[in-house]
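Is calcium ion placement plausible here? Inputs below.
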Amino acid sequence: MRALDLIPAILLAATITVGCADLAPPTDTDRSRDQAPVLSNGAEKVTLCHKVRNTITVGAPAVAAHLAHGDVEGACDPACVKNKPSGVISWWQADGDVTDAVDANGGALVGGAGFSAGKCGLAFHFDAIGERVEVPHHVSLNIEILPSATVEGWFKSFGGLENVPGQVLIVGKHTCGNATGWFFTTGSGAFIGNHLVGGFGLGALNLHDGFFHHFAVVKDGTSYFEYVDGVLLSSDVGPPAGTPAPGDPPMQIGAFTTGTCAPVMHQLNGLVDEVAIYNRALSAAEIAAMNQP
Ligand SMILES: [Ca+2]
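Reply from A.M.:
I modeled the complex. Tokens:
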């Protein structure tokens, strides 16, 4: 069974290019500059979709530089943009690759994981034991050591592959068997900075219903919050900072293979999309606003 860990990573980036509609360049007829707005200094204004998907307006002379670093002309698609407030430090859009849209924490599909239609564009898709995403260790992913942090994203679970009923890993950077690192799982809740953030009973929420659910876990100093579908499930007080997981494990999405979870545990049968990490505590209002159809 341990051979599952040895299956080479499969990157599909070269074969799938579908993304959110906001990434398509606008036509000449819908460019905002056709409306001829101007800045206070008289320069023509141009609306761009910034590479982290917030709509910005800049002066025409600055457009070339923005396009060169990945922005596209035209407003972002609100259905995608609304989910990502400021403070994003890493963001896996899963739109056909495992790149980090903000930082350099790219990863790989492992064990046959792939992509399917997601909450926004494509999503990571897992439907067999051992399928997961792995992002190599980097200290920037040790959010337990930050004064404040948030991790949030979308998942869809069908259940049926987990070793513990109802408990599947959505995302985490954790060495199983050690009370360190961080993760969010269904069934057992969230863990961040050596602190179990509430958690919810297996029967309290059916999160394996084949629909997308939004999750968010917030660390705000010594205050911890756990949300599902924009609703606060639990909040309490914990340590100001936690200890990084031993052995510098990778960040994993869809299944754990670290520590006592080897070769594979808590396998997700479903999808994960648009996972993002923030260097600040998102507010309840910001998280509620993400829970859009
Ligand atoms: Ca996506």
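Short version: The domain at 2-17+83-290 is CATH 2.60.120.200 (Jelly Rolls).
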